[in-house]
Amino acid sequence: MCLALESIGKSIDDIDAILITHEHIDHIRSLPLICKNHNIPIYTCLKTKEYLDEFLASKKTSGVVHSLEYDQMFKINDLEITPFETSHDAVMPCGFYISNTIQSLAFATDLGYVSDSILKYLNKADYIVLESNYDNIMLEYGKYPFSIKRRIASDMGHLSNNDTACILNSILSTSPNKKFLLSHLSENNNTPAIACDTITSHLRENGLDKFDICFASKDLSCEGYTIWLVFKLFV
Fold it and tell me: What is the pTM of this model?
């Protein structure tokens, strides 16, 4: 992790807090090591906090883990942060709406569908980080067992490129100046080129030809995104 931060000119001392959306291992694998060596506060929803406390204890360490509730705003420095409920096969998954007096960002990955409540947060954000996890054909004909394919494509799984295209179309049709970073692309069931083609084709077919969309690569460890010098997002 430290080497990845160094690759974008940062160190772990630049991190004021860690936000955890849910407890799946690809999101929390590094927490024990971080907690053993650094006193960075962790924020997550109540049932996820309970899981993290047990997980850290099993690794013979502990951390400062703060408990959050859906739709209840809290502050870190000058940022106001609100967790919102997402649909995923985890104990209490969430996304985050982050704002200050200048700009706002909504972060939503690992979700099977976008509810009206989530869409409310996406619509009011200036910047949106949203997953575009899989291509339908690649998933259908890929190597995963049927049970895993069914889980990914379910309302408790992930968003397909087509799902994400429909969501972007809905948002951009009324708010064309939104900026998007599409992330969490599956290593086995998607590619940036396929995701880009699916989404941009859908938008153009619906009369949208001006949009600001970036695709995060699959290897996210050494990418940094600066959002108007307001947020530093490390993904």
Answer: 0.91
The token pair at 38 is: 């650094």
Domain range enclosing 120: 2-234
pLDDT digits (tens, 9 = 90+) for 56-88: 999 999 999 999 999 999 999 999 999 999 999
Check if the beta carbon of residue 56 is closer than 8 Å to that of residue 62: yes
Matching residue, tokens 């009011």: 124
Contacts of 177 (CB under 8 A, 6+ apart): 212
d(CA 25, CA 46): 18
Phi, psi of 228 (to 5 degrees): 50, 35
CA dihedral 24, 26, 28, 31 (to 10 degrees): 160
Number of structural domains, the chain? 1
The closest of 196, 185, 193, 189 to 223, measured between CA atoms, is: 185
**Coil, helix or strand at residue 82:** strand
Q: Which residues, listed in sequence order, are joined to residue 81 by a DSSP beta bridge?
A: 74, 98
Burial class of residue 154, CB neighbours in 10 A (0-12, 13-18, 19+): middle
Q: What CATH number should be reported for the domain holding residue 138?
A: 3.60.15.10
